[in-house]
Design brief:
Layout (H helix, E strand, L loop, with lengths): L1 H4 L4 H30 L1
Length: about 40
């Protein structure tokens, strides 16, 4: 976690934010899909 304290470049921040958002979206979509699949 040492890279968090060092001042990263703006491109790194944007790419990291996009990666985090993408992972969260995939996780939510997966849980939602599993929930709908169990409901049937």
């Amino acid at each position: 976690m040492h890279f968090v304290f060092s001042p990263p470049a703006p491109e790194a921040i944007v790419s990291r934010m996009l990666l985090t958002i993408e992972l969260v979206t995939i996780a939510i979509a997966g849980m939602y899909g599993a929930f709908l699949f169990r409901q049937k």
